[in-house]
Design brief:
Helices cover 45% and strands 17% of the residues. The chain is an alpha+beta fold. The strands form three sheets. Strands 6-7-1-10-11-12 form a six-stranded mixed β-sheet. A five-stranded antiparallel β-sheet has the order 5-4-8-9-13, with no helix packed on it. A two-stranded antiparallel sheet has the order 2-3.
């Protein structure tokens, strides 16, 4: 009877965990709705509520010598990434940076564990017995790297280019560690599949899986899921601003390899030496003409010229003309400005059930049995984003650089061998556990009465509920990154973006030699990110009797 109680409690726990996972996608969908409608404060409040509410604020009198409030375990890596993005959209750059630095602490803890403990490759025990959602969320590979990029953009918005450079360096180091880690994970997945005699190890063998989502050209042209052409281009720009031309060239070159034949990227590398060369100023010393012989040295007058005299006439040599001054490079008086346009929202991860033939232990050895399993799927999207912006009176085309949607699908492509091994082993464990429950209730027979069938049914329901793919993902990330680059005079400028026939505008200021202004287009909303600025809305074709509205898009979030 004690064993049955344990089984009942286990079934209940399985059911609860499955429901919690299903609620995750719904919760994030609701939070994303606030971004699409311009109500970032509502999204931020909803996120905080999902994690138990805002952290308690200590009174000034209680801060000194008082114990720090306990860390909220629900405010994990995923929470901090989402909170940082929402605060950034709300115009709170400092608060965004604070949240992302906390998220970075989680990632650095993961990095330390990978370096220090090889058993990290084995994964959490809970993942093998229940589902991937019970594993500690360590962030997808591209999310770890995009965290560095977001922090770099925040530091630039705060005019701290040196900290931006530090984040770019950390990005490169993180990419190298991820590459080494993923190679070991793949090897471990192959060993696990062989030990369990699993024959299906490729997603191509999953009948019914949307293979085209992973074999699309935009996915296959990516070498991995964590390097992006935008990240490399931004690295080149940051290094160039700090005078490190060799690292800048490396960044631009890598971006060009990932995005070949793109004029903006090629020009960044080709004209790097010209942009960074110190101005050459040629100083010319005037050349005085040679002194003619002074015939008046003894007070005598020069002899008068004779008529028809054939004596040669003394002509002074010409004065050497000073070379023309070097032409002034007008660009040296302008600010090299990078426009970063973030578009849309990162895709959701969906669960798709597909049955797989697995070797299940039985009395005669291993018996093949069809088992319904869950697999992660990311659907491609074909959104319509603005292809250009207008700066003052000049139309500036935007160049597409990176698709987070393609990177997320590449992540599934790379992780699928490990996912298949974990999912299959977990399914075998669950089937065996279900068989044990059925046998126990059958032996108990009359002692359990009708409860025996209910216990067996509850276990089956719990097993089905917990068989879900890991749908956790950084949903408030952009769907894609686009850039433009141009020279602007120092001072204020007006940015205008046509979103579905509605013109949204904001002002930004550039100074110094290099500058970045970033924006986010989501739905019909425009968010000015760096610098955080109010956005005005102008309808060139208002309805009769209508007026042009002015909205402080995104800036209503709590500071």
């Amino acid at each position: 009877m004690n064993r049955l109680k344990v089984l009942i409690l286990a079934a209940s726990a399985l059911l609860i965990s499955g429901c919690a996972n299903m609620n995750y996608n719904n919760r994030l969908t609701n939070i994303s709705t606030g971004i699409l409608t311009g109500n970032v404060k509502a999204s931020l409040d909803m996120l905080e509520e999902s994690a138990g509410g805002p952290d308690p604020v200590m009174a000034a009198a209680d801060k000194e010598g008082a114990a720090k409030p306990p860390v909220n375990p629900r405010k994990d890596l995923l929470f901090q990434m989402e909170a940082g993005q929402l605060r950034r959209l709300g115009g709170n750059t400092a608060g965004s940076t604070q949240a992302w630095l906390r998220a970075d602490e989680f990632v650095r803890a993961w990095e330390d564990a990978v370096k220090r403990d090889p058993s990290k490759l084995l994964g959490d025990i809970a993942s093998v017995t229940l589902n991937d959602t019970l594993r500690t969320y360590e962030g997808r590979d591209y999310e770890k790297v995009m965290l560095n990029i977001g922090l770099a953009l925040n530091h630039i918005a705060m005019n701290d280019w040196e900290k931006a450079r530090v984040e770019i360096r950390k990005m490169h180091e993180r990419q190298a560690l991820i590459a080494d880690y993923q190679a070991k994970v793949i090897e471990k997945a192959k060993e696990d599949a062989a030990s369990q005699k699993l024959k299906v190890t490729s997603f191509k063998e999953l009948g019914g899986y949307p293979i085209e989502t992973l074999e699309a050209p935009e996915v296959q042209k990516l070498t991995n899921s964590y390097e992006s052409s935008f990240g490399h281009y931004l690295a080149g720009f940051v290094y160039e601003s700090q005078g490190d031309t060799s690292l800048a060239a490396a960044g631009y070159r890598k971006a060009a390899e990932m995005m070949p034949n793109i004029p903006l990227v090629e020009a960044a590398l080709r004209e790097l030496d010209r942009r960074t060369a110190p101005p050459v100023v040629t100083r010319v010393t005037p050349v005085a003409p040679p002194q003619a012989r002074n015939n008046n040295q003894r007070g005598r007058q020069p002899p008068p010229a004779r008529a028809n005299s054939k004596a040669p006439v003394q002509v002074a040599p010409p004065v050497a003309a000073a070379p023309a001054p070097a032409p002034v490079d007008n660009n040296s008086l302008l600010v090299d400005t990078l426009i970063v346009a973030e578009m849309g929202l990162a895709p959701a991860v969906e669960t798709q059930k597909i049955a797989l033939l697995l070797p299940i232990p039985c009395r005669s050895g291993l018996c093949p049995q069809m088992v319904a399993l869950s697999w992660p799927v990311v659907r491609p999207v074909t959104p319509s984003y603005p292809g250009s912006v207008r700066i003052n009176d000049q139309d500036v085309p935007l160049t597409f650089m990176t698709s987070i949607n393609a990177m997320s699908r590449r992540a599934i492509y790379d992780e699928m061998p490990a996912i298949m091994a974990r999912t299959s082993i977990r399914a075998i464990t669950k089937v065996v556990a279900q068989q044990a429950v059925d046998e126990s209730t059958s032996r108990a027979g009359a002692a359990l009465g009708p409860f025996g069938g209910l216990i067996s049914l509850a276990t089956k329901v719990a097993v089905a509920a917990t068989e879900v793919a890991d749908e956790r993902v950084w949903r408030t990330l952009p769907d894609s990154y686009h850039v433009a680059r141009l020279m602007l005079p120092p001072g204020k400028h007006k940015m205008s973006v046509n979103i579905g026939g509605i013109i949204r505008q904001y002002e930004f200021t550039v100074a110094g030699k290099y500058a970045v202004t970033a924006m986010r287009v989501t739905g019909n909303q425009l968010y000015a990110l760096s610098p955080a600025s109010p956005v005005t809305t102008f309808n060139p074709n208002p309805a009769p009797g209508g007026v042009n509205a002015v909205a402080r898009t995104g800036l209503e979030a709590v500071k």
